[in-house]
Amino acid sequence: MIDALWGWPPPVLDPAGPYADKVTTLAWALFGMGLVVTAIVCAALWLAVRGSPKIKAMIGGERAIWIGGIAFPGVVLLGLLVWGLTLTASLTQPIRGDEMRIRITGEMWWFRVQYLNADGDIVMEDANELHLPVGVPVVLELEAADVIHSFWVPHLSGKKDMIPGRRTLLRVQADRAGEFGGLCAEYCGSQHALMGFVAIAHKASDWQAWFDDRTTRVARTEMLAETAPPDAMPYPGDAAAYPMEPETLERYDARRGMRLFMESGCAACHRIAGTEANGLAGPDLTHVGSRRSLGAGILPNNRGTMMGWIGDSQSIKPGNRMPSYYVLSAEDIGHIAAFLELQK
After folding, report:
1. In DSSP terms, which residues pair with 47 in a beta bridge?
2. Most buried residue, 6, 163, 208, 274, by most Cβ within 10 Å?
3. Mind listing the pLDDT tens digit for each residue in 317-337?
4. Measuring CA to CA, which residue among 24, 293, 32 is closest to residue 155?
Protein backbone atom coordinates (compact mmCIF):
# COMPACT_ATOMS: atom_id res chain seq x y z
CA MET A 1 0.00 0.00 0.00
CA ILE A 2 2.81 2.40 0.82
CA ASP A 3 4.42 1.81 -2.58
CA ALA A 4 1.09 2.40 -4.27
CA LEU A 5 0.21 5.64 -2.55
CA TRP A 6 3.57 7.42 -2.53
CA GLY A 7 3.37 9.04 0.81
CA TRP A 8 0.70 7.04 2.58
CA PRO A 9 -0.22 7.38 5.37
CA PRO A 10 -0.24 11.10 4.66
CA PRO A 11 1.41 13.29 7.30
CA VAL A 12 -1.17 15.67 8.70
CA LEU A 13 1.34 18.33 9.84
CA ASP A 14 3.39 18.76 6.66
CA PRO A 15 1.56 21.37 4.55
CA ALA A 16 2.38 21.78 0.87
CA GLY A 17 0.07 24.72 0.16
CA PRO A 18 -1.50 27.80 1.75
CA TYR A 19 -4.80 26.17 2.72
CA ALA A 20 -3.18 23.23 4.47
CA ASP A 21 -0.68 25.63 6.06
CA LYS A 22 -3.44 27.51 7.88
CA VAL A 23 -4.96 24.27 9.16
CA THR A 24 -1.54 23.11 10.35
CA THR A 25 -0.85 26.40 12.14
CA LEU A 26 -4.19 26.15 13.93
CA ALA A 27 -3.48 22.53 14.87
CA TRP A 28 -0.09 23.41 16.37
CA ALA A 29 -1.66 26.29 18.33
CA LEU A 30 -4.31 23.96 19.75
CA PHE A 31 -1.68 21.37 20.65
CA GLY A 32 0.42 24.04 22.36
CA MET A 33 -2.48 25.49 24.30
CA GLY A 34 -3.51 22.00 25.30
CA LEU A 35 -0.06 21.41 26.75
CA VAL A 36 -0.15 24.71 28.66
CA VAL A 37 -3.57 23.94 30.17
CA THR A 38 -2.51 20.41 31.06
CA ALA A 39 0.62 21.74 32.78
CA ILE A 40 -1.46 24.24 34.80
CA VAL A 41 -3.91 21.53 35.86
CA CYS A 42 -1.07 19.19 36.86
CA ALA A 43 0.59 21.97 38.88
CA ALA A 44 -2.70 22.74 40.63
CA LEU A 45 -3.18 19.07 41.46
CA TRP A 46 0.34 18.82 42.85
CA LEU A 47 -0.14 21.91 45.01
CA ALA A 48 -3.52 20.62 46.21
CA VAL A 49 -1.84 17.44 47.44
CA ARG A 50 1.64 18.58 48.48
CA GLY A 51 1.22 22.31 49.02
CA SER A 52 1.13 24.16 52.35
CA PRO A 53 -2.22 24.63 54.14
CA LYS A 54 -2.26 28.25 52.97
CA ILE A 55 -1.82 27.21 49.32
CA LYS A 56 -4.46 24.50 49.63
CA ALA A 57 -6.91 26.97 51.07
CA MET A 58 -6.22 29.42 48.27
CA ILE A 59 -6.69 26.80 45.56
CA GLY A 60 -9.92 25.56 47.07
CA GLY A 61 -11.36 29.04 47.59
CA GLU A 62 -14.31 30.48 45.69
CA ARG A 63 -12.16 33.08 43.97
CA ALA A 64 -9.85 30.40 42.54
CA ILE A 65 -12.85 28.53 41.15
CA TRP A 66 -14.20 31.65 39.46
CA ILE A 67 -10.85 32.59 38.00
CA GLY A 68 -9.33 29.22 37.21
CA GLY A 69 -12.47 27.24 36.51
CA ILE A 70 -14.61 29.72 34.59
CA ALA A 71 -12.85 32.95 33.59
CA PHE A 72 -9.57 31.47 32.39
CA PRO A 73 -11.09 28.68 30.21
CA GLY A 74 -13.66 31.10 28.85
CA VAL A 75 -11.08 33.69 27.81
CA VAL A 76 -8.74 31.07 26.34
CA LEU A 77 -11.45 29.30 24.33
CA LEU A 78 -12.97 32.56 23.10
CA GLY A 79 -9.56 33.81 22.06
CA LEU A 80 -8.77 30.61 20.20
CA LEU A 81 -12.16 30.69 18.48
CA VAL A 82 -11.73 34.25 17.22
CA TRP A 83 -8.13 33.69 16.16
CA GLY A 84 -8.96 30.36 14.49
CA LEU A 85 -11.86 31.82 12.51
CA THR A 86 -9.68 34.73 11.39
CA LEU A 87 -6.83 32.45 10.43
CA THR A 88 -9.00 30.08 8.38
CA ALA A 89 -11.28 32.72 6.85
CA SER A 90 -9.76 32.14 3.42
CA LEU A 91 -10.97 28.53 3.47
CA THR A 92 -14.59 29.63 3.41
CA GLN A 93 -14.38 32.65 1.10
CA PRO A 94 -16.95 32.59 -1.70
CA ILE A 95 -15.85 30.91 -4.93
CA ARG A 96 -15.11 33.54 -7.59
CA GLY A 97 -16.15 31.37 -10.50
CA ASP A 98 -13.02 31.77 -12.62
CA GLU A 99 -10.91 29.21 -10.75
CA MET A 100 -9.86 25.93 -12.28
CA ARG A 101 -12.44 23.29 -11.33
CA ILE A 102 -12.23 19.54 -10.94
CA ARG A 103 -15.16 17.38 -9.90
CA ILE A 104 -14.50 14.43 -7.58
CA THR A 105 -17.21 11.91 -6.76
CA GLY A 106 -16.98 9.41 -3.93
CA GLU A 107 -17.99 5.90 -4.95
CA MET A 108 -17.96 2.52 -3.16
CA TRP A 109 -14.88 2.53 -2.66
CA TRP A 110 -12.98 4.75 -5.05
CA PHE A 111 -12.87 8.35 -6.31
CA ARG A 112 -14.12 9.43 -9.75
CA VAL A 113 -12.15 12.46 -11.03
CA GLN A 114 -13.52 14.70 -13.83
CA TYR A 115 -11.68 17.69 -15.25
CA LEU A 116 -14.03 20.51 -16.27
CA ASN A 117 -13.70 23.33 -18.79
CA ALA A 118 -14.77 26.93 -18.20
CA ASP A 119 -18.37 26.03 -19.05
CA GLY A 120 -18.44 23.19 -16.53
CA ASP A 121 -18.37 20.46 -19.18
CA ILE A 122 -16.36 17.32 -18.57
CA VAL A 123 -13.30 17.21 -20.82
CA MET A 124 -11.46 14.27 -19.27
CA GLU A 125 -12.12 11.61 -16.68
CA ASP A 126 -9.80 9.62 -14.46
CA ALA A 127 -9.93 7.77 -11.16
CA ASN A 128 -8.14 7.87 -7.82
CA GLU A 129 -5.57 10.42 -9.01
CA LEU A 130 -5.71 14.20 -9.06
CA HIS A 131 -3.18 16.11 -11.17
CA LEU A 132 -2.65 19.74 -10.21
CA PRO A 133 -0.47 22.62 -11.46
CA VAL A 134 1.84 24.03 -8.79
CA GLY A 135 0.91 27.44 -7.45
CA VAL A 136 -2.61 27.48 -8.87
CA PRO A 137 -5.66 27.43 -6.59
CA VAL A 138 -8.11 24.76 -7.68
CA VAL A 139 -11.73 24.38 -6.62
CA LEU A 140 -12.82 20.80 -6.11
CA GLU A 141 -16.52 20.06 -6.61
CA LEU A 142 -17.16 17.20 -4.22
CA GLU A 143 -20.09 14.81 -4.67
CA ALA A 144 -21.08 11.32 -3.54
CA ALA A 145 -22.81 8.65 -5.60
CA ASP A 146 -23.99 6.45 -2.76
CA VAL A 147 -23.18 7.17 0.89
CA ILE A 148 -21.34 9.94 2.74
CA HIS A 149 -17.61 9.98 2.07
CA SER A 150 -15.03 12.60 2.99
CA PHE A 151 -12.22 13.86 0.78
CA TRP A 152 -8.92 14.59 2.48
CA VAL A 153 -5.42 15.22 1.16
CA PRO A 154 -3.74 16.56 4.34
CA HIS A 155 -0.83 18.14 2.46
CA LEU A 156 -3.17 20.36 0.47
CA SER A 157 -6.19 21.32 2.60
CA GLY A 158 -8.59 20.28 5.31
CA LYS A 159 -11.11 17.53 4.74
CA LYS A 160 -14.59 18.02 3.32
CA ASP A 161 -17.60 15.71 3.35
CA MET A 162 -18.97 14.28 0.10
CA ILE A 163 -22.75 14.08 0.55
CA PRO A 164 -25.23 12.34 -1.82
CA GLY A 165 -27.47 14.85 -3.58
CA ARG A 166 -25.35 17.82 -2.56
CA ARG A 167 -22.25 19.44 -4.06
CA THR A 168 -19.66 20.86 -1.68
CA LEU A 169 -16.65 22.95 -2.67
CA LEU A 170 -13.09 22.72 -1.41
CA ARG A 171 -10.08 24.83 -2.37
CA VAL A 172 -6.71 23.13 -2.69
CA GLN A 173 -3.35 24.42 -3.81
CA ALA A 174 0.08 22.83 -3.99
CA ASP A 175 3.08 25.15 -3.72
CA ARG A 176 5.62 22.45 -4.52
CA ALA A 177 5.72 19.58 -6.97
CA GLY A 178 5.29 16.13 -5.53
CA GLU A 179 2.93 13.26 -4.85
CA PHE A 180 0.65 13.51 -1.86
CA GLY A 181 -1.43 10.73 -0.38
CA GLY A 182 -5.08 11.15 0.47
CA LEU A 183 -7.93 9.07 1.79
CA CYS A 184 -11.61 8.95 2.64
CA ALA A 185 -11.96 10.42 6.12
CA GLU A 186 -15.57 9.35 6.80
CA TYR A 187 -16.50 5.76 7.55
CA CYS A 188 -18.42 4.69 4.45
CA GLY A 189 -18.57 0.91 4.60
CA SER A 190 -16.56 -2.22 5.18
CA GLN A 191 -13.74 -1.20 2.81
CA HIS A 192 -13.54 2.42 3.94
CA ALA A 193 -9.93 1.91 5.04
CA LEU A 194 -9.02 0.81 1.49
CA MET A 195 -10.28 3.97 -0.23
CA GLY A 196 -7.06 5.78 -1.03
CA PHE A 197 -6.11 8.59 -3.33
CA VAL A 198 -3.02 10.25 -4.80
CA ALA A 199 -2.64 13.95 -5.69
CA ILE A 200 0.22 14.72 -8.08
CA ALA A 201 1.42 18.33 -8.31
CA HIS A 202 3.31 19.28 -11.50
CA LYS A 203 5.11 22.44 -12.47
CA ALA A 204 2.60 24.55 -14.37
CA SER A 205 4.21 23.92 -17.77
CA ASP A 206 4.48 20.19 -17.08
CA TRP A 207 0.85 20.05 -16.00
CA GLN A 208 -0.28 21.77 -19.21
CA ALA A 209 1.78 19.32 -21.28
CA TRP A 210 0.28 16.42 -19.33
CA PHE A 211 -3.24 17.76 -19.79
CA ASP A 212 -2.76 18.43 -23.52
CA ASP A 213 -1.34 14.94 -24.03
CA ARG A 214 -4.30 13.33 -22.30
CA THR A 215 -6.96 15.33 -24.11
CA THR A 216 -5.22 14.95 -27.47
CA ARG A 217 -5.02 11.21 -27.04
CA VAL A 218 -8.74 11.04 -26.22
CA ALA A 219 -9.64 13.16 -29.26
CA ARG A 220 -7.38 11.10 -31.53
CA THR A 221 -8.74 7.74 -30.45
CA GLU A 222 -12.33 8.95 -30.69
CA MET A 223 -11.66 10.22 -34.20
CA LEU A 224 -10.17 6.88 -35.17
CA ALA A 225 -13.21 5.12 -33.78
CA GLU A 226 -15.50 7.25 -35.94
CA THR A 227 -13.50 6.82 -39.14
CA ALA A 228 -12.49 3.16 -38.84
CA PRO A 229 -14.29 0.64 -41.09
CA PRO A 230 -17.34 -0.91 -39.40
CA ASP A 231 -15.72 -4.34 -39.21
CA ALA A 232 -12.42 -3.04 -37.83
CA MET A 233 -11.89 -2.41 -34.14
CA PRO A 234 -9.82 0.64 -33.28
CA TYR A 235 -6.75 0.14 -31.17
CA PRO A 236 -6.51 2.76 -28.45
CA GLY A 237 -3.29 3.63 -26.77
CA ASP A 238 0.08 3.68 -28.44
CA ALA A 239 -0.49 1.68 -31.63
CA ALA A 240 3.25 1.29 -32.13
CA ALA A 241 3.41 -0.66 -28.89
CA TYR A 242 1.05 -3.34 -30.16
CA PRO A 243 2.77 -6.46 -31.48
CA MET A 244 1.94 -6.62 -35.18
CA GLU A 245 3.57 -9.85 -36.40
CA PRO A 246 3.00 -13.34 -34.99
CA GLU A 247 6.69 -13.89 -34.37
CA THR A 248 6.87 -10.75 -32.24
CA LEU A 249 3.94 -11.66 -30.05
CA GLU A 250 4.62 -11.75 -26.38
CA ARG A 251 3.06 -14.33 -24.17
CA TYR A 252 0.18 -11.93 -23.69
CA ASP A 253 -1.38 -10.35 -26.77
CA ALA A 254 -2.83 -6.86 -26.27
CA ARG A 255 -5.03 -7.14 -29.36
CA ARG A 256 -6.56 -10.33 -28.06
CA GLY A 257 -6.84 -8.67 -24.68
CA MET A 258 -8.92 -5.89 -26.18
CA ARG A 259 -11.31 -8.38 -27.78
CA LEU A 260 -11.62 -10.26 -24.50
CA PHE A 261 -12.21 -6.98 -22.69
CA MET A 262 -15.13 -6.19 -25.00
CA GLU A 263 -16.58 -9.70 -25.03
CA SER A 264 -16.33 -10.43 -21.31
CA GLY A 265 -18.59 -7.65 -20.12
CA CYS A 266 -15.85 -5.27 -18.96
CA ALA A 267 -17.08 -2.63 -21.40
CA ALA A 268 -20.47 -2.58 -19.72
CA CYS A 269 -18.98 -0.92 -16.63
CA HIS A 270 -15.83 0.76 -17.89
CA ARG A 271 -15.12 3.37 -20.54
CA ILE A 272 -12.06 3.57 -22.77
CA ALA A 273 -12.10 6.59 -25.07
CA GLY A 274 -12.21 5.69 -28.74
CA THR A 275 -13.58 2.19 -28.24
CA GLU A 276 -16.95 0.55 -27.86
CA ALA A 277 -16.40 0.52 -24.09
CA ASN A 278 -18.70 3.19 -22.70
CA GLY A 279 -19.69 1.90 -19.29
CA LEU A 280 -20.12 4.49 -16.57
CA ALA A 281 -20.52 2.35 -13.46
CA GLY A 282 -16.82 1.71 -12.89
CA PRO A 283 -13.67 3.79 -13.20
CA ASP A 284 -12.81 5.22 -16.63
CA LEU A 285 -9.89 3.12 -17.91
CA THR A 286 -8.76 5.41 -20.72
CA HIS A 287 -5.53 6.17 -18.84
CA VAL A 288 -5.39 3.24 -16.44
CA GLY A 289 -1.92 2.20 -17.62
CA SER A 290 -0.40 5.42 -16.31
CA ARG A 291 -1.93 5.35 -12.84
CA ARG A 292 0.23 4.83 -9.79
CA SER A 293 -2.11 2.38 -8.13
CA LEU A 294 -5.01 0.00 -8.60
CA GLY A 295 -8.08 -0.60 -6.46
CA ALA A 296 -8.06 2.98 -5.10
CA GLY A 297 -4.56 3.00 -3.75
CA ILE A 298 -4.23 -0.51 -2.38
CA LEU A 299 -2.00 -2.05 -5.06
CA PRO A 300 0.93 -0.76 -7.13
CA ASN A 301 -0.02 -0.69 -10.80
CA ASN A 302 1.74 -3.40 -12.78
CA ARG A 303 0.72 -6.35 -14.92
CA GLY A 304 0.81 -8.83 -12.05
CA THR A 305 -1.44 -6.80 -9.75
CA MET A 306 -3.72 -6.00 -12.69
CA MET A 307 -4.15 -9.71 -13.37
CA GLY A 308 -4.83 -10.37 -9.71
CA TRP A 309 -7.40 -7.61 -9.53
CA ILE A 310 -9.26 -8.79 -12.67
CA GLY A 311 -9.23 -12.41 -11.61
CA ASP A 312 -10.25 -12.07 -7.98
CA SER A 313 -10.91 -8.50 -6.89
CA GLN A 314 -13.40 -9.72 -4.29
CA SER A 315 -10.69 -11.41 -2.26
CA ILE A 316 -8.60 -8.22 -2.37
CA LYS A 317 -11.39 -5.77 -1.54
CA PRO A 318 -14.51 -7.77 -0.54
CA GLY A 319 -17.80 -6.12 -1.40
CA ASN A 320 -16.51 -3.80 -4.10
CA ARG A 321 -18.63 -3.64 -7.24
CA MET A 322 -16.10 -5.34 -9.51
CA PRO A 323 -16.91 -9.08 -9.76
CA SER A 324 -14.17 -11.68 -9.68
CA TYR A 325 -13.74 -13.18 -13.17
CA TYR A 326 -13.30 -16.83 -12.31
CA VAL A 327 -14.69 -17.72 -15.76
CA LEU A 328 -11.57 -16.34 -17.44
CA SER A 329 -8.42 -18.38 -17.66
CA ALA A 330 -5.15 -16.99 -16.34
CA GLU A 331 -4.00 -16.69 -19.95
CA ASP A 332 -7.04 -14.61 -20.93
CA ILE A 333 -6.62 -12.38 -17.90
CA GLY A 334 -3.02 -11.82 -18.91
CA HIS A 335 -4.12 -10.73 -22.39
CA ILE A 336 -6.58 -8.23 -20.89
CA ALA A 337 -3.96 -6.91 -18.49
CA ALA A 338 -1.53 -6.44 -21.38
CA PHE A 339 -4.18 -4.43 -23.21
CA LEU A 340 -4.95 -2.26 -20.20
CA GLU A 341 -1.26 -1.71 -19.58
CA LEU A 342 -1.11 0.23 -22.86
CA GLN A 343 -3.88 2.65 -21.91
CA LYS A 344 -1.81 5.65 -20.89
Report:
1. none
2. 274
3. 999 999 999 999 999 999 999
4. 24
